[in-house]
Structure prediction request, 269 residues.
Amino acid sequence: MARGVEYKTRPQMRVMARAGIVVADALDAARAAAVPGATTAQVDAAAAKAIAAGGATSNFLGYHGFPAVSCVSINDEVVHGIPGPRVIQDGDIVSIDCGAIVDGWHGDSALSIIAGTPRGGQDTHLVERTKAALWAGIAALTTAHRLDEVSGAIEDVADDAKVHPLIGYVGHGIGTAMHQAPEVLNYRTRGRHPKVKPGMCLAIEPMFVIGTAESTLLDDDWTVVSADGSRAAHWEHSIAVHEDGIWVLTARDGGAAELAAFGIVPVAP
Prediction:
């Protein structure tokens, strides 16, 4: 341990990769269910079925009282939307965040889609550039000396795309708990940042909004919405750092397809 960081062995990372594949399956099922006319509760039920089929347990359900296995956030809801009777409409941006535990080790991942027909090019741009920022951050992790280099890579994509990282909500370490040290910011800050070291497992998760970077917490004490009502997107993967490279734990190919554009070949732990 150093400053609260839990360093993992490669066998432990391999268990986390098993959890990560369950999360990938759950997100695939949730994505397929997130169609116009479906409720967010139905999206959550699809994720729950996949987690159970994978022999895993949910790390969202019961977390500080959270009542579901996934967060389903729509349009101006940036993160932590509670699934329920709300009906998904054509053109909605739907962000789904989900996690799972296998043998005590956690996985965590998120994606954003547009249900049905996109309302306009701005929504597509937001979703695509948030995803691009995720992979830019993951790519930066392969050579980063400190975590602020990852944060800077994410912010650079936001600046180029003319969207804004949500202030106050960040990525995190992951392992025997879903949320651990260190924080992984989506924007640059001053100060000394943690060194990137083998054994780290990190959840990188850019949250971008079209309008203001400020947010508001709804009365349910969970749902985070953009302060000005502008639309938002959220993407996330869990990544392992080891002596020979990185591996995206929540991607079936370890991130190979997306990282190829950066000239990076992920290495399994």
